[in-house]
Amino acid sequence: MKKRIITLFAFLLLTIATIVFLAQNHSVSAQGQDKVVPHEILVKFKDGVDPSEVGKAHREIGGTVSHTIPGINVQVVSVTKNVGEAVSAYARDRRVEYAEPNAIAELFEVVPTDNYLTNQWALHNTGQVFDTERNLSGSNDADVDAPEAWGVTQGSGTVYIAILDTGINLTHPDLVGKLAPLRMKDFSGSGLEDQYGHGTHVAGIAAASTNNDVGVAGTGFNSSLMIGKVCSNSGSCPYSWVANGIVWAADNGASVISMSLGGSSKSRTLENAVNYAWNKNAVLVAAAGNSNNPSKTYPGAYTNVIAVTATDANDRKASFSSYGSWVDVAAPGVEVFSTFPNHPFVLENPANNRDQNYGYGSGTSMSTPVVAGVVGLVWSTPLAGNNNAKVRAQVEKTANPVSGTGTYWRWGRVNAHTAVTVNVQ
After folding, report:
1. Do 63 and 86 touch, CB atoms closer than 8 A?
2. Residue 355: HSE in the Cβ half-sphere, 13 Å Cα cutoff
3. On the CB side of 204, how many CA atoms lie within 13 Å of its CA?
4. What does the pLDDT read at residue 131?
5. What's the confidence (pLDDT) of residue 353?
6. Which processes are annotated in GO (biological process) (predicted)?
């Protein structure tokens, strides 16, 4: 009788554990549905696996290859099973190196409550009122000293800054002269034109046409723009599109890859793409995120990426910025003035108080292209040594140790002038 009671008790414990396990897994799956591409995963087969075996594995598990990300040989696979089941099935296969969901990154912009060089305090801050309508001002020299840097170098048209984002306004007068027709590619299937507005704003910060009596100045001055549309017209950015964009940019001569986006999920595919581009001598810059906590964001948190958080016009950490020991530098990211599409766009809706052509934007999305522009300037100097590690060191080690350095980020708030003049080792 006692043995029977013990057996029954053990059975009940097993049943309860099973119910809890199933409930937990159901909950995780439900929470993650809006953060991954449904019925699509990323699969990397082990090196040396015969193509016939690869095909056999797909037939056995029920996956169909949509396309392969070149350079890193990761397959984007359509599956009929739910993502979790499909990932598990592939991961158990001895021929597979890894399998993971095709997670979705989001754009890091904080929409302001309201909607030209005096407006751009991020580049040159004298404490001026940069928005007279809202009487916004800052503190003297809480900027990246761009005019001082431009006195040393105005960059080079042979330095390409790849903007991986929502596309670009192809007819904007402050951008059209900076676009390289053979260095633009759409990975979203929705066309290069920016219907969302984010990519156009980011591109202008990095490298709008400068000293042309029109609109705004770009941090990278003469740097050229490459455009990779890796986000949809609603601002959704599947990791596969982002990875494709990183590899494409590296293969097509990008000196800088700017990514004002990120996701909370780690991805070996995304990391492989980052490492591929780094090994191609590109400097990668990515947003730290707008969560106001130390949680890591990817690709920003990867070793071969400069993670950027945001500061305001008084050199304080932006209230929304993610932070932590994994964040490398800070840069202006609050009320940053730049280009917007010259046609209706998603972020223009009345609640956002945005104007066509030009306007303010806030977020680590804005601080990221400031750093990308500074990287572009460094690449045009002898200090670069044609070496991405040296360029990165120039940007990070010459940053100003403003308040928050060592706590919220490692190196400081970037300074374009010291980056192009002080030779670090």
Report:
1. yes
2. 9
3. 34
4. 87
5. 57
6. proteolysis
129-419 fold = Rossmann fold (3.40.50)
Radius of gyration of the chain (CA): 23
- Average pLDDT, rounded, for the chain: 90
Indicate if 165 belongs to the active site: yes
Check: pTM over 0.70? Answer yes or no: yes
Q: Which CATH number fits domain 33-104: 3.30.460.80, 3.30.70.80, 3.30.420.60, 3.10.25.10?
A: 3.30.70.80
Q: State pLDDT tens for residues 173-229.
A: 999 999 988 899 999 999 999 999 999 999 999 999 999 988 999 999 999 999 999
Distance CA 107, CA 259 (A): 9
DSSP H helical segments within 93-238, as ranges?
146-150, 198-207
- For residue 296, how many C-alpha atoms fall within 13 Å in the half-sphere facing its CB? 14
Give pLDDT, residue 374: 98
Give the residue extent of every domain in the chain: 33-104, 129-419
Range 397-406, long-range pairs (CB < 8 A, 24+ positions)? 397/424, 398/422, 398/424, 399/329, 399/330, 402/142, 402/311, 402/315, 402/330, 403/315, 403/316, 403/317, 404/311, 404/316, 404/317, 404/323, 404/330, 405/330
In three state form, how does the secondary structure of 288-322 look? CCCCCCCCCCECCCCCCCEEEEEECCCCCECCCCC
Please tell me which residue in 156, 255, 267, 365 is annotated as part of the active site: 365
Which amino acid appears at position 240 of this protein? S
From the list 58, 124, 198, 201, the catalytic residue is: 198
Confidence of residue 350 (pLDDT cuts 50, 70, 90): low
Q: What count of other Cβ atoms lies within 10 Å of the Cβ of residue 5?
A: 9
> What is d(CA 220, CA 243) in angstroms, rounded to the nearest whole number?
24
pLDDT digit string, tens, across residues 357-387: 999 999 999 999 999 999 999 999 999 999 9
Instruction: Determine phi and psi for 339, rounding to 5 degrees.
Output: -75, 145
List, for residues 114-162, the tens digit of each pLDDT value: 347 888 998 989 999 998 888 989 999 999 999 999 999 999 999 999 9
Buried b / exposed e along 219-247 (16+ C-beta atoms within 10 A): bbbbbbbbbbbbbbbebbbbbbbbbbbbb
Annotated catalytic residue, options 93, 143, 165, 194: 165
Element housing 28 (H / E): helix 2-32
Largest CA distance in the chain: 94
